[in-house]
C-alpha cells in the first residue's frame, strides 16, 4: 500500500473499506503504468490492471491530472518515508548521502511525470508543488541536522543548498540515456565536497 494516499471520498467523509481498497489498487496500478509507459499511460489499462471498471476509476480520479497528481504525491511520500528509514538504520552522513541519491534518482526518473503535471496545472491541485516541496525539505532537514551533529557535513550547508544541487544535476543529465547512473556519480562527487574534513561523506 502506498503510504499517505488514503484520500477521503469526494463527499469529504472517510472511504468505506471496499472503496479504499479500490482506490489503493488503482493507485498502485497507475504508479506501475506511469513508471513503464509515462504520463500518457492508458487509463483503461490501469483500470483493467486494478481489477475495476473505468467508471470506478473516474469516481476516484475524475481526470488524468488527478490520477497523476496522486501518483506523484505517493512517490514523494515514499521518498520522505525512506528518509525516516535511513535515519533509523544508517549513520547520519551515509543516511543523508543515500537519501540525496534517492532524491536525484526520483528527479531523473520522474521528469516526464513532473512536466505533464506542470502542463495540466490549471486543472489540478494548485498547492501540490508547494506541498511536495515542503515535505521533501522537512524530510531532508532532519537528516541534515543529524549529519551536522555527527560532524559529517559542514555547518554552513543548508538543505536548500543540497536540493538545489540535486536539481542542477538532474537538469544537467537530461537526455542522457544513463541519466540516473551519471546523476548519482555527479552527486557523489559533490557530496564529498561538503564533507568538513579529510575523507568522504559517503
UniProtKB/TrEMBL annotation:
For this protein's source organism, the top of the classification is: Bacteria, Bacillati, Actinomycetota, Actinomycetes, Streptosporangiales
> Which keywords does this Swiss-Prot/TrEMBL entry list?
DNA-binding, Transcription, Transcription regulation
Q: Which residues form a coiled coil?
A: none
* Source organism (scientific name): Planobispora rosea
Q: Which Pfam families match?
A: TetR_C_43 (PF21597), TetR_N (PF00440)
Q: Which InterPro entries match?
A: Homeodomain-like_sf, HTH-type_TetR-like_transc_reg, HTH_TetR, Tet_transcr_reg_TetR-rel_C_sf, TetR_SbtR-like_C
Where would I find the HTH tetR-type domain in this sequence? 20-79
Please provide, alphabetically and separated by semicolons, the GO molecular function terms listed in this UniProt record.
DNA-binding transcription factor activity; transcription cis-regulatory region binding
Q: Give TM segment ranges.
A: none
Q: Which residues bind DNA?
A: 42-61
Q: What name appears for this protein in its UniProt entry?
A: TetR family transcriptional regulator
